[in-house]
# Entry
Amino acid sequence: MSQERFYITTAIAYPNGAPHIGHGYELIATDAIARFMRLDGRDVLFLTGSDEHGQKMQQTAEREGISPRQLAERNTARFREMGPALNASNDDYIRTSEERHYKTCAALWEKMVATGDIYLDKYAGWYSVRDEAYYDASELTKGADGNYTAPSGTPVEWVEEESYFFRLSRYQDKLLELYERVPNFISPETRRNEVMSFVKGGLKDLSVSRTTFDWGIPVPGDPKHIMYVWVDALTNYVTATGWPDETHPRAKFWPADVHIIGKDIVRFHTVYWPAFLMSAGLPLPKRVFCHGFLFNKGEKMSKSVGNVIDPFALASHYGIDPVRYFFLREVPFGQDGSYSPEAIVQRMNADLANDLGNLAQRSLSMIAKNLGGELPQPGPLGDEDKAMLAEADGLIAMAREAMSDFALHQMLSRIWAVIAEANRYFAGNEPWALRKSNPERFGTVLWVTAEVLRQVAILTQPVMPTACGKLLDILGVPVDKRSFAELGGGARIVGGSTLPAPVAIFPRYVEAETE
RNA sequence: GGCACCGUAGCUCAGCGGUAGAGCAGGGGAAUCAUAAUCCCUUGGUCGGCGGUUCAAAUCCGUCCGGUGCUACCA
# Structure
């Protein structure tokens, strides 16, 4: 019996600076999905990485007097460190400057050539020498002297450069057919609408090589050209599976199940990428999911405004798990979201410390103090107990349903609804009064509560791996009994076992005194 | 300019043809096992404006206003 596979990727980051919270958000969300699938029994490949070539890297390196490779080396290190800093469980970290990627890109290029989709022509456009960039005619303004200038105010001239082109125009119908045949190929739907209207508007062939700089992957047979951004960058997803080596241990992972990307790069992933793959005769990824942007108190983050949030600082200040929980619970996945210190503290205290943390603490410390730490065996279950358990048992099905569209926020909201119900159950049964009046009932209420906590903790592991691990520790759940196979009522927490001393899992956040 | 989406309680949003909902915030009460956490009750909305379809519209249609995204043009 072969295990079901799941291949998920983030976009690869351009390490022309330091990682910001947008990179962190994408990594956290993708990681949570990857962890979910692993716990649900899939054989997962989770890939992230960096896109290190290109003119900007080369320019920045020149400015700093180092080689592009040295710059990539230095900046990529910081992006890599973000993995551990946010507790990401990626199986690989790919860099487009790696040898393996050069091989795969060359192979993909040759396939496209063989199909007849690559041809040599001239790339013509308005070029600003000072900016070292091309501008579209629509971006230009006409000066008093009749000459055109770029948005930056610099003069532009008409330049023609030899370039290889990809016959994107051939793929218009095939792409539209794809979007119709696989309606969730692009989600959320609003992104799908945009892409479809763009493709319906007609596709022009794509310039896919450059000769004006050399920090990139050489075009096979014509090394004065390097592959221009999209062929190079997108192909990383295939590289990681070892293609074209069909005996590679990871060959089985292509096609990817989902690419998680930001909404700014939708077109490249849903138009260019599938067209390249069709041309090369490779299977297409099953889905592309676009998340939104994060705003700082409703304002766009930008370096010039100085409101950019550093993911490292955020995680070290509030803790990795609370930060992960906050972004995944607060922001409907696929929509834009907003960050503020007040909002994160609100979530930490209300959802984590009060609702979940305190429920665990009050019930487990009751077991520790009154029962010598021995988890009670339940007596006969009443309707109320059964209803409570049924809610917990129903969680896994609801979670899978939500996750079929990567609705992490929805999954969390449903889990927290059960936690709220457990608080009602606990308060309604008043175990502190039952302690003397009805010891058997006392034990039953505590057992049911512990069982609900067990299922909640197992299911929330993808979002808060460390904290949920600790919670499962103090619930006495063995490490090999923490997968989703243990959910839904088929397995129960074992009464009669001795639990470790309870410790607070989610401390209340109190703002440090600012003298 | 075109296309799409959105505008519902102070805030974030769900509902998408059948008597206005959730969470948080605000107000009152209960309890005291617990990280002063929890539980119960409660204030609060002409569902952006106007017009239409319908026995019935937040929900469908038209139009206007406001916002967002994609795209085009003014060469």
Remarks:
- Residues 253 and 334 of chain A are 25 Å apart (CA to CA).
- The longest strand of chain A covers residues 118-128.
